[in-house]
Amino acid sequence: MSKQTPRKQSARKPPAAKQATSQQAAAQQADTSQATGRKTPGTDSGAGSAKAGGGRVPAPAAAAPAPETGGSPAKELSRRRLLGTVGAAGAAGLVVGGAGGAAGVSAARDDAPEALATVGSTRVPFRAAGGGHQAGITTPLQAKGHLVAFDLAPGTDRKATAALLRRWSRTAEELMAGRAPDADTGVALDAGPSSLTVTFGFGHSFFSRTGLTKRRPIELDPLPDFSADALDPARSNGDLWIQIGADDALVAFHALRALQKDAAGRARLRWQMNGFNRTPGATAHPMTTRNLMGQIDGTNNPKPSDRDFDERIFVGRDAGQAWMRGGSYAVVRRIRMLLDDWEKRSRHDQEKVIGRRKDNGAPLTGGSETTPMRLDANRPDGLPVIPANAHARIAAPESNQGAAMLRRPFSYHDGFREDGAPDAGLLFVCWQADPLRAFTQVQRKLDRGDALSPFLRHEASGLFAVPPAAEPGDYVGQPLLEG
User: pTM for the whole thing?
Assistant: First the structure.
């Protein structure tokens, strides 16, 4: 078959359009890096891609030849396939047709190829040379998330489990780099990595199922019961846990589906929850996210710049189980918010319950969001300015012998209940070196008199040991399973 003469490429964007695109990309990246109040750690957008605060947009990729007449769509380059071949050189993808009929395809082919926006091109490394933490712990909050737990299938021994984790690690590495794995579904062919992270953890029951009970850390002992718990066992715990986060919903779902397919015959789905956060670039300036109660949520989170951050969040070098050194423990709670009851309260009453202003997150003792709370400040009548049972007061490190955890949640909405109330709230995920000294200590105190508790229902729970990131050539958990 003879080839057609390649069509003439359309003109590039005028300088003004380029400048607008650059400014928008910079705003998106700045908001992404500030979602948890800090810059993006360990991100790699490739040469020529936007860096935090830099406002640079990836350089356009080289133009592809026009397709042959009558050629199969399968032969056309997709952005995601291109990322896997030239991403290191800074090329981010091509715009290609795929839907909308012949007219849509023709228009896409006539357009000059453009680079992905900053949100799409941001890549978080899967591996950590020389030791390091898994992605998805200190990574800034992403717009979309999935939490999923699996139980090992009957007859799955340690060797078969190692094969599963090797396969999962390979798939996660490909997806986080923006490459399509084998037998890809095509869900995310048009997208870049979009800050995708995949984080793996082991539950308490994993160790007995694999004959590794002697290597189970004491920190993984089950959480105590709390008076406010109304836990559903079917949506709690699990042998294996995966946290998926991305700034694009299709990229996140694509990862979820690929990992689920990889588990066939080796692990069975136990439960799965979907969450979301604000999309990067949705606010006029970077700010701490809000929860579904409308409150700024995450102000007092520990920061990597804190002197004792690693000590509080990550397992130290003197840990009894060597395979967990550099890892962390994740507590996962599905917390339904009684939004109908909450929204009936005045803003003044809501602020008293939380201990902070609703508009800017400042403590009731004054200042801005980051101003320290003055827990000793009293009103003229002698009562504390921040009520004794205010959530912010009870949960503060100062009220818990310095106990702190890194909160990294997603909001969720699963429709409406029979009474018409929204089935919505928080997929609470927190990270710490020792759950007993962090989550458990704080939750026990909240359980005894938190003003926010009447508006919450804890409906599912889990605790997982999250080992350090896999080094080159290894898979997540290899020192445990083969050590």
Answer: 0.78
